[in-house]
Amino acid sequence: MKLVINRQSKVPLAQQIHQAIADRILSGHLERGARLPSVRQLAKMLQVSPVTVVHALDLLEAEGLITRVHGKGTFVYEEHAKTDQTTERQKTFPVVDYLYRSQYWQYQKSEVPIDFAQSVVHPSLLPTQALADSIRRLIREEPDVLVQYGEIQGDLALRQALARYISGERITASAHEILVTNGSQQAIDLVARSFVGPQDVVVTEEPTYTAAIDAFRSRGATVLSVPVDEHGMRIDELTGLLDRCTPKLIYTIPSFHNPTGSVMSVKRRRELIDIASEVNCLVLEDDPWSEIHFDEPPPPHLKSMDETGNVIYIKGLGKILSPGCRIGFLIATGPVLERLVAAKTNADLGNPLLNQRVILPLFENGSIRESLRRLRETLRERRNLTLRVLERHAPDGVTWKIPKGGFNVWVSLPEGANANELMAEAEKVGIRFLPGSACDPNQIQWRHLRISFSPTTEADLEQGLTTLCHVMERYLSLLVNKKGKSPLF
Amino acid sequence: MKLVINRQSKVPLAQQIHQAIADRILSGHLERGARLPSVRQLAKMLQVSPVTVVHALDLLEAEGLITRVHGKGTFVYEEHAKTDQTTERQKTFPVVDYLYRSQYWQYQKSEVPIDFAQSVVHPSLLPTQALADSIRRLIREEPDVLVQYGEIQGDLALRQALARYISGERITASAHEILVTNGSQQAIDLVARSFVGPQDVVVTEEPTYTAAIDAFRSRGATVLSVPVDEHGMRIDELTGLLDRCTPKLIYTIPSFHNPTGSVMSVKRRRELIDIASEVNCLVLEDDPWSEIHFDEPPPPHLKSMDETGNVIYIKGLGKILSPGCRIGFLIATGPVLERLVAAKTNADLGNPLLNQRVILPLFENGSIRESLRRLRETLRERRNLTLRVLERHAPDGVTWKIPKGGFNVWVSLPEGANANELMAEAEKVGIRFLPGSACDPNQIQWRHLRISFSPTTEADLEQGLTTLCHVMERYLSLLVNKKGKSPLF
């Protein structure tokens, strides 16, 4: 176990140690029942006082992540890890690793009948026919794409088509400023590995996208967060935070924020751009689904306002076009782009050519726009259905935000409730959602949950969500009876 | 510019600083003509004595990588970087990055008529027809693969087929021990990011695969190397090195070593396995083309001898089956595998499903074996042609190793010659090869070059190689006339 703490950070050491150990437990890197090093060992390893370690362990114990057994030691709580079939020899394999956090995959490990946890689109809503036609033509006319490598930066024809597409989104970028990636996750990860390290601070929204937290924390960075309200990231809170530290990077999902669905106002977008330029930090603008707007399009992208090259724009096409091809891209300029292309080279030498050529015609003939229009309309109906079911069946005290776009609705349970406990109950009836704690760098959004209305059939959405409301009702009524219960794991 | 040095390392500090700056220059991260920080600034930044910095700069100057201008400062040598179109504002973008080395892409940036630099296979030698048939059937029967995500660890059906395939290679692995990656490069990179960090030592062969050096050095590791002879990695040299340090990982290409083509003997394989188990370090066994043997199959894979879980086996299928699908995989067990799956999640959430299903039938119906048999026979003829041309046209003093498998021949120029200078001459007539310096962690293999006989047509191989021999002859005769010239850049 290698824990990284940052003495330059304004985050108290005990809190950093707590976070580092919690990361490992919740990522499954520390086995259930595993024994932690002693207070003295941890203090020595981290070069902090034993009092600091004890304080960190107190926090972990309060969350139920560890148990202390008098005279025996401190152990990872038994319910927090997976069953394990490896041998004892393998379990104790004494190789230090550098992966500090990877929680996202814990939510992907098994299948449930009705899965509202993943922000993906039900296959029936995607342009299967157009993609199939494209691939048939491609194999007939250019079968050699199967046996040729593409360019590391991405197929030039596709980059040209993406540049044209994105100009329709008011971003001016040449094909040479585009890097094709293996989904948006790789784009986030390339930025993290190129520009984020153990001494750095990354600012995210709170809550935010789970796998982005994983990517930044895996680099050993300190992740600080700024709350989101209905107009997006709270810039007043951001400036307050900037008095205490200078971030290397600010990660934001300004349009139909994941998971809350809110939209950053034009004013705040301008302020964010100005701040980034002033303190000279990078802004990573993640745009998973700005095309999926239910009332009106969101304000201009941050990248379209960027005059200094501070903004890196990323977009995944898996969710909205073809998960089977899994293509994303980023836009950056100058040395920032060069570093990212070099990082892509080290990471995998480039995306497969086949997939890039499969989606190309949809951009060249513009059918992507029509496909997105249909997706938008269907998801608007899904959003409305979701709101209707919640209004009708959600128990008292449960609230939600009305998303103006995107794939998700962010639901809040009453004070004292815990979405992780609710999830355990929901899984018993074959339903899953994403607990809010997964979306929070500090794992404190215990009473919130994200429900995606895109991945299931419409019938499953209606039926599953109704059932989930009943599970909520039962869970909350039991909670009232067990008064005084800690709202933790 | 952020330079990382390792005070625990046995490598002298001056040499580490030299290496760190050389990496950045040769990777193109330091612009031509860029001014380096002053001796005093570097000494302060790195917390070393100015004498140490001066020694490092002496080494860089001797190699022609920097020039010192009296009263003005130290500058990156003008011929070592690309033309650049970014603005001054962007050039000086003051964001520290963490990518210490990525040289491989420097050799991929432009196209030449005859490219012997890339160990890829000419499209005509790959099973285009079988792949095209597979994709047509797939799209007819399961069009939904275009609009579905696969498992993060890789499509289960493919992993099962790969487990069966690899059992034919005498490696026993279940589908659950296989992780599908975006080519073998991603497999190397996932291992590097999971287990290698700035305080670690990685041992490679010398010479070795360029992009592997990039991946390890990008993690800030100290890369030490062990020479290779006709029986593979010199285990006596390895044990000598182990007296001085304990590596975290040993990276090896035991079968038809890249770039020299040598084969590690059974005895040395056993010794390596025993050593890794004793000092408890990981062994990364890269197997790009063990199926392409010209005389006899290589000895059993290291992974097949591994009883402790120390060995991670990786295999790319791009080179030998379908570059357009770019699929690779790795085999590992227990917590090592778990870390790698988590790293894959953070890296990109999994390979595209489409490509995995395209190659699946070739493994299921066994036609991959037949395809590899044909490739082996063609490449044996190519190897023989290469040797014939070299014997007939290579100038006196030029030598080469006879490869027993794989895609490359390793050629050595006489003492005093420099393969980088030769490459500049060859590029004038539209021919490229890989200079040996790219394959060496210490960039000292100046007089060697790797010629791949797989990427061109047979006619281009014969004609291009003949021309290259004439270029060599002219270059070497000029060199004799310019006696006393430094054999450096």
From TrEMBL, chains A, B:
Known PROSITE patterns for this protein? Answer: HTH_GNTR (PS50949)
Q: Which GO terms describe its molecular function?
A: DNA binding; DNA-binding transcription factor activity; pyridoxal phosphate binding; transaminase activity
| Keywords, in A-Z order | Aminotransferase, DNA-binding, Pyridoxal phosphate, Transcription, Transcription regulation, Transferase
Q: Which Pfam families match?
A: Aminotran_1_2, GntR
UniProt feature coiled coil, ranges: none
Q: Quaternary form? A: Homodimer.
- Specify the protein name: GntR family transcriptional regulator
Protein source organism: Polycladomyces abyssicola
